[in-house]
Amino acid sequence: MHRAMFTSLRQGDEKPKVTRELLLRVLAYAKPYWSHIGGMLLTILAGSALSVVTPLIFRQLIDNILPSKDLNKLVMFAFALLLVPLLNGGISVIQRKLNATVGEGVIYDLRVALFVRLQRMSLRFFTNTKVGELMSRLNNDVVGAQNAISNTIVGIVTNLIEGAAILIVMLSLEWRLTLGSVFVLPLFYLIARKLGDRLRVIAREAMDINAQMNAHMNETLNIGGALLVKLFGRATEEGDRFRQRAGGVRDMGIQRAVIGSSFFVMIGLVSAVGTALVYGFGGWLVIQDKFTVGTIVAFGSYLGTLYGALQGLAGAPVEFSTSMVSFERVFEIIDLPHDIEEKKDAFVLKDAKGELAFENIDFKYSINENILLSAVKRYGKMEDVGAVFSGGKKTEKTEDEGSRTKLGQPSSVLGLDSPEPAQTSQARDVALEGVSFTAKPGQLIALVGPSGAGKTTLTYLIPRLYDPTSGIIRIDGHDLRDVTLDSLAAAIGMVTQETHLFHDSIRTNLTYAKMDATQAEIESAARAANIHDFVAGLPDGYDTIVGERGYRLSGGEKQRVALARVILKNPRILVLDEATSSLDSESESLIQDALKRVMAGRTSIVIAHRLSTILAADLILVMDRGKIVERGTHEELLATGGLYSQLYETQFRGERA
Using CA atoms, how far apart are residues 407 and 401, in angstroms rounded to an integer? Predict the structure, then answer.
C-alpha cells in the first residue's frame, strides 16, 4: 500500500510531492523521541526570546540610561548584555545534544530496519540490484532522512517562531517602519525561486556525474577490476577516464559554488534595500521627533535576524522536499514484499533425516518488478548510472530476456566447462521443466549435463534461494514452503563453485557456520577438509586474514576452507558444486579426499565434474535444456547409449585413461 507514494517521482515530476501519508509515516519514526523533540521546542522558544531581548537592551541604553547617566543601571544592563549570550550558548548546547540524540537515533532505527529487511530478500532481488544502490540507501538516504527530522524541521520551526516573535515586537514598536521592512519580501521569493531552480538543475547534473565517477571507482578499485586493469595494461586509459569524470565533478562544484554565492549576494542586496528603507524612513521619523534613536538601532538589529529567518524559510520547501525523497527511498526498501515468504505457522524442522523429493518442478527466471527497487529518483530527476565505461544509457530488458540470460547465474559455470556433446543450444525461457526425483537419506545424487542445462538452478531451489514456479519440493515429507527459513538453512549445507570468504581471519570464516564452535571443533573440521596442516603452518594460524574475498589463498585452499565450514555446520543435506577443473593435482586430490568425508552419511546433491563422484553416486541425473532426460547408475546409463554416454566419452576420456 505504501508503494503508491512513489508514483509522483516515477512519473518524472521535477518536484517531489509531500503527501499526508508520507508525513505521518515520517513522524512515526520521530515518535520514540517526542520527549527530546519537546525539549528542543522549549530551547527554541527560549532562544527566540533571548534574541528579542538584546536589541531592547540597546534601545534602553541609548534612549534612557546614557542620557540620564544612571551608572547603576548601566552596570546592570552591561551585565545583562554578557548574560544573554551566556544563556544563549548554554541553550544552544542543550538543543544540540537533544538534536543529535534524535538525529542519530533515527539513523540507527532506519539503518537497522533496512538491513534486517534486506537480509530476508531473495537471491533474485540481489541479482537484479546494484550493490552501490543499496549502500547509497543505507548511507546517503538514511542520513538525508535523518536530516529532515533533526535539521530541516527544527530549522523551519526555529525560523517561524523567531520570525513571528520579531515581527510582533517590531509592530509593537512602530507599525509603519515594520511595513517598510517587509516591503522587500516579494523580492526574497523571486530571487529564491529563480536561483533555486538553477541550483536544482546544477545539483541534478552534479549528482549524475558524481554517480558515474563513483561507479567507475567501484568497478576499477575492487580486486577483480584492479586485476583486469593490470592484466590488460589499461592503467593509463583508466586514469584518463577518471580524470575526465573527476573534472566534470570539479566543474559542477565550481558552478554550484558560484551560483550559491550569487544567491547570497542577491539576498544580501535585498536585505540592504530593506535596511536602507528602515534607516531612511526611521531617520526621518527621528528628525521629526516621532521616533527615538534607540528604537531605530533596535529595529536595525531585528531586521538582520528577521531577514535571516525569512531567508531560511525561503529555501525550506526545497530542503524539506529533498529530505522527503530520502525518506521515500528508505521506505521503498522497507515496503518491498519478500519474494521468499515464511508462513506465520511455519514448521520448525528438527532432527532432519535428509530425504529430499522434487515433484514436477518448473522454474523460470522471471523478474517480478514488485520485489525490485523502482526507479525512484533523487531530487531533480537524477538518472540511474547506465554503462560505466562506454557512457551509454542503460537499455530496458524484458522479462523473457531476463529469463533467457538467467540474471545472476554465470552460464559458463553452470555445468561442465567442455563443449556440449550434441552442440545443442541451452538458451530457453524456462530454466527447469517437469523435474521429479527423490533422494533418500544418505544417498549421493550426481547431476551431470551440458553447461547451462539447469543443474545449478536446481540446487538453488533446495535451500529456497528461489521458489519453484510450479510443483513442490519436500524435505522429510514437508513442503519447503511450510518450513521455517532458519531451520531449513540449518539442515542444508551448500558449497558453491565460486567460494566466498569474508575479509577476516580463517577462524571467523569457519565459525560463521557455528558461532560457538570450540577450537577443537574448528581443528577437527579443518582436518576433515585437509586444510588444518596448511593453516597450522601459517605465521598467525587460524587468525590469518584471508584478504578481500579470500584472494590471499589459492583456489584449492579457499575450497577446502569452504568445505571445513560446511563440516563445522554439520548439515543433513549437502549441496555441492564439485568444481575442481581449475585446481592443481595436489589440491584436487586433497579436496577429493575431503569430499568423501564430507558426504559420508549425508544426503548429497552434487554437480559432478569428476568420474570418481559419478561412479560413487547412488543415482545419476542427466540434465539437458532444463529437463532430466536420463537417470540411473553409471552402468545403466552407459548401456542406453544416450546423452550420458556422449558426456562420458567427451568429458571423462582423459580421466578414464
Answer: 9
